[in-house]
Design goal:
Shape: globular
CATH class of the largest domain: Alpha Beta
Strand content: 25-35%
Helix content: 25-40%
CATH architecture of the largest domain: 3-Layer(aba) Sandwich
CATH superfamily of the largest domain: LCP protein
Structural class: alpha/beta
Largest sheet: 6 strands, mixed
Strand order of the largest sheet: 13-8-1-4-5-14
Number of strands: 21
Length: 422
């Protein structure tokens, strides 16, 4: 009898522990689930591939086309877009290395089309649509493109409005009107919030000295603004609604959930892991028609780096300065001679300064643009001018420059110090 009570007490304690243990397990699993979802949203690179439920778990090369024409119905009832694709971009998303590579292809790129001869690359879509365009670009770049996304430019303004507009630092005054093309562009320099109509005008404006190359440079500014907007959790939560509402402005072979995964991946790639470049080439004429003439040797180099993740060959960091062309844009309002001082320093090191001129906007912090996905060279230049400036991959100066320095007030003291020692 005396033993009966302790045994009963032990059994009661066991029964009490079972619910407690079960509750603890449930709390642990919920916590683990929340952690995995949070990492999927905030830092998917830390999540194993098999647990990446809302972010990429495979490498993708995606063709993005922007077209002015509206969707039409063909005999099969399938929605198609006819007309020229004036924006051509290749996105390479690599979740294993957490890198995002973007290659802009000028719309005037000369290409040989079977049965049509030499044409501009934006003509491909009007011949055979996005699938035909995809095949021809694969042949040009010698890469595989997994998917395509075609956006109707007129519908893009609605998408921008839906996410609350985007903040853009407009580099110059832009004014242009074209009733036929439904363009009414009236923008002034400086950082500002653009609504949908203004953002589309910013992207489509091409009436400056660089023509289509200048337009591509603004597209790169626009893409950076979109990536920054995606960092806002409120914007990201709107994506499913945006996709469902504006399916009429987007034609793609990607599913909605795949688009969300790609968007979530892009928003988490740091700027240091992003490369942005223009298809290598130069302005030229053929049969009295102006083209962007592609440089196949340079294309092979940039494709090798951006799409096959091949490291730069040994010694790339120490290229002969005489092989590097630099553009210097003075955005300082405190030193009108800053551009000239920088150019003098770089020339003394042996670099070729191909351009030195004032920038229209005031710049407080220096930016150094690697124009050919050559961040190693940009870093080399940064050290030569006193290790000042933010490194960016993209295009700002003339397309034949390797590096463009957008000089700001923060560079004045360092350049004066370097100049005084020489």
């Amino acid at each position: 009898m005396p033993l009966e009570r302790p045994l009963k007490f032990i059994e009661e304690r066991r029964q009490q522990k079972k619910p407690s243990l079960l509750f603890g397990s449930i709390v642990f699993l919920i916590g683990l689930f929340i952690t995995i979802i949070s990492l999927n949203i905030c830092n998917p690179s830390l999540v194993p591939n098999e647990l990446r439920v809302i972010s990429l778990n495979k490498k993708l090369n995606i063709l993005v086309l922007g077209c002015d024409e509206i969707f039409e119905e063909n005999e099969k009832g399938t929605k198609v877009i006819k007309g020229r694709s004036d924006t051509i971009i290749i996105l390479s998303c690599n979740p294993f290395k957490n890198t995002l590579n973007i290659l802009n292809i000028p719309r005037d790129t000369k290409i040989n089309i079977p049965g049509h001869g030499s044409e501009k690359i934006n003509f491909l879509n009007s011949i055979g649509g996005p699938i035909f365009t995809k095949k021809c670009i694969e042949k040009l770049l010698k890469i595989h493109l997994d998917n395509f996304v075609m956006v109707n430019v007129q519908g893009l303004n609605k998408i921008i409005d839906e996410i609350g507009g985007i903040v853009v630092d407009v580099p110059q005054k832009m004014q242009y009107q074209d009733t036929t093309a439904m363009l009414n562009i009236n923008l002034f320099p400086g950082k500002q919030l653009l609504n949908g109509e203004q953002a589309v005008g910013f992207v489509r404006f091409r009436y400056d000295n660089l023509g289509d190359i200048g337009r591509i440079q603004r597209q790169q500014i626009f893409m950076r603004a979109i990536v920054k907007k995606l960092l806002d959790p409120i914007t990201f939560t709107k994506l499913p609604e945006v996709i469902s509402i504006y399916k009429k402005t987007i034609l793609t072979d990607l599913k909605s959930k795949e688009i969300i995964k790609i968007a979530n991946f892009i928003r988490n790639v740091p700027s240091s892991h992003q490369n942005v470049a223009i298809l290598p080439g130069e302005f030229g004429r053929y049969n009295r028609v102006g083209y962007w003439i592609p440089n196949q040797d340079e294309i092979n180099k940039i494709v090798r780096k951006m799409f096959y993740d091949k490291n730069a060959p040994a010694g790339f960091n120490h290229l002969n300065p005489k092989d590097i062309r630099i553009s210097v844009l003075n955005g300082s309002r405190k030193d009108n001679h800053l551009g000239t001082k920088i150019s003098t320093v770089l020339r003394e090191y042996g670099y070729i300064v191909a351009l030195c001129q004032d920038y229209e906007n005031h710049v407080s912090k220096t930016k150094i643009y690697a124009q050919k996905a050559n961040s190693e060279v940009a870093l080399q230049i940064k050290h030569k001018i006193g290790n000042v400036g933010e490194l960016l991959s993209g295009n700002l100066g003339p397309p034949d420059s390797d590096i463009t320095i957008l000089a700001g007030d923060d560079l004045i003291n360092q350049i004066d110090r370097i100049s005084s020692k020489k």
